[in-house]
């Protein structure tokens, strides 16, 4: 049994990590500000220790890291358009809090720190798929913040010998991804629109592509990065499926699963949007033995099932 701090553990990806760690018999502490996370995302795992607070606050970060062997740093304000609208708030959550928990984890003697990086760091690359050795080109405050935080992690490995690994996620989706905000991930928004018989919105012409990655694959990749005996300190590793699909095609697949034929409403392209995204995952395979376990369509089915409104409770008659 090992001890894990999951920052952002009441959020979408963090709550899946916490669930799997508890299932494997580990001790789990969650630190979450509840700005985007939800306490009820952890209702099904009572064994978790929960701390509410802001990791940018050094004393809270110290309390969170104390006594932990591993830190899975998932806490972030994770939206491109939200960062374009309000770069200051997302900078505090995405950079200041990362630096603060890095210092606290280093000082607490944490063995390894796994950071949730983002594929947005690549921006528009001249070729696909995107490899970790390609130059980065952030197009939004969010992308820049995730890249700076990732570089802080690498610097902590170089300067202090503190083991950090960045797993760069590509458009993660699945149950518990909040569909309730205009900043939500596109699959959660499409799912709720189709299930309610509403037309989904597509920003741009819908020909942009993404490497949509079901959350179970990310959980597997992150825990492999934590446990890897290979030389991973200071590395940046893509975690994705290595496929890509356009939003127009995605909507077609989702319409087929739900049994609808709802056409999109096209709106102006979003500022800071990347055109195409697809990962090369050979580094994850080589260093972590990672290979995707759940494909797009199966992941979409699970996600749509989760988004389905539950039937009304029986009236007792
Ligand atoms: C980006 C990052 C991803 C990061 C995520 C956090 C890239 C390639 N990926 O995802 O690593 O974790 O931010 O939020 O930069 N869209 C619609 N209709 C909608 C909502 C979105 O058409 O209702 C479009 C967006 O304009 C975009 C695509 O769908 O082209 C995906 O959007 P979204 O799910 O928000 O994620 P990204 O911005 O790609």
Question: What's this, in brief?
Answer:
The protein is α/β, with parallel strands linked by helices. Helix content is 38%, strand content 16%.
Describe this structure in words.
The structure is a single chain. Helix 1 (12-23) packs across helix 7 (215-227) and helix 4 (87-107) runs parallel beside helix 5. The relative contact order is 0.14. 38% of the residues lie in helices and 16% in strands. The mean pLDDT is 97. The longest helix is centred in the first third of the chain and has 21 residues, at 87-107. It has a domain at 3-171 and 215-239: NAD(P)-binding Rossmann-like Domain (Rossmann fold), CATH 3.40.50. The strands form 4 sheets. Strands 3-2-1-4-5-6-11 form a 7-stranded parallel beta sheet, sandwiched between helices. Strands 7-10 form a two-stranded parallel ribbon. Strands 8-13 form a two-stranded parallel ribbon. It has 317 residues and is an alpha/beta fold. Residues 78-80, 118-120, 169, 171, 185-186, 189, 201-203, 208, 210, 247, 270, 273-274, 277 line the site of uridine-diphosphate-N-acetylglucosamine.
